[in-house]
Specification:
The structure is a homodimer.
Chain A: H1 6-23, H2 27-38, E1 44-45, H3 46-53, H4 57-69, E2 73-77, E3 84-88, H5 92-121, H6 123-160
Antiparallel strand pairs in A: 1-3, 2-3
Helix pairs in contact in A: 1-2, 2-4, 5-6
Chain A binds a DNA duplex through α4.
Chain lengths: 161, 161
DNA sequence: AAGTTGGTTCGATACATTACGAACTAATTG
DNA sequence: CAATTAGTTCGTAATGTATCGAACCAACTT
């Protein structure tokens, strides 16, 4: 039942905030996820997570389920032990990047639509900003391309491991 | 007082949702911003924005002020006319990218901290995932680099214009 | 079969955020 | 100087979301 050191607690909060903002997770879900990312154990039990986060059973249950469904977190069991042990999904960095790809895809889609719309309906506006809008679209396209390459790298890396 | 066509209304909503998610703007602020991005007029008046969004004066006032303070939107006036005319800031794409840079910076910062922490405290975990974590960090660093280059391009572009 | 343990489900509560309306200022017009 | 227009401020109502507690189920233990 050792206490968690102060600096680790703070890092958990910090990482939690980032995850919350970037992934739209609830505060508790983000904190749990951060806890698992920084945990030195290979899997924390439900009860342990409650103890660390000081949250209620129901909240932890619900938020863990969300994390599992989003594939951020996975669990395993030990024979002769009813508990579940939760840890970050083996592919969590890959998942993170796929999520990035997804949000880039969506943004690119919209930016294209905006450019197309302005070209049709606001020609003078489009002309004024044409190069800027296109510049941005190009940037997004390149970025997507780059993410795809990195994702492939990670895929290969995990296959060989 | 012409009505706004249905397809444009829908595009406004779509763009609005994206802006809301990506920038953390309130729904109304995001809708206003989307409206201005897609507007064919060079600046919409306060009243016109109320009419389009069907929102209350106070909400529009408040959200417009937020958009102006964040430099997403700017306004100009005409001599002998008390109204303000609002339009997307001349630098809105640049602003968008600076925001991206900022969020990447923050994420990179955190990922570095995570890697450093795991290296110190969870050596076995760090070893297992070392290349993945580093891969991700590298990706973020490249991405930041790329954003900086694009930003410079945009800067130069706007200087010459 | 009664009592634990591990975990889920389902309202209720608390909290934060958004949007609103009414009252107000400040400039403009008749 | 009354009336209109442009816009702000502030308290409040409405809405949405996170968390909680209590009741519950299922599996295991005695």
């Amino acid at each position: 039942m050792q206490e968690i050191p102060q600096d680790k607690k703070q890092l958990i909060e910090e990482v939690g905030i980032m995850l919350e903002e970037r992934s739209g997770l609830s505060p508790l879900a983000a904190r749990i996820y951060a806890t698992l990312i920084l945990s030195s154990h290979d899997g924390l039990s439900f009860g342990k997570i409650i103890q660390i986060t000081q949250a209620s059973k129901s909240s932890v249950s619900c938020n863990l389920n969300v994390l599992v469904q989003l594939h951020y977190v996975e669990y395993y069991t030990k024979p002769g032990d009813r508990k579940r042990y939760f840890r970050t999904s083996q592919f969590y960095i890959k998942n993170t990047m796929e999520q990035q790809r997804h949000s880039i895809d969506k943004e690119l889609e919209i930016v294209k639509k905006i450019n197309a719309f302005n070209k049709d309906h606001n020609p003078e506006k489009f002309k004024n900003e044409k190069s800027l809008g296109i510049l941005f679209q190009e940037y997004l396209e390149e970025h997507r391309h780059k993410i795809n390459i990195k994702l492939k790298e990670i895929n290969d890396f995990q296959k060989q491991a």
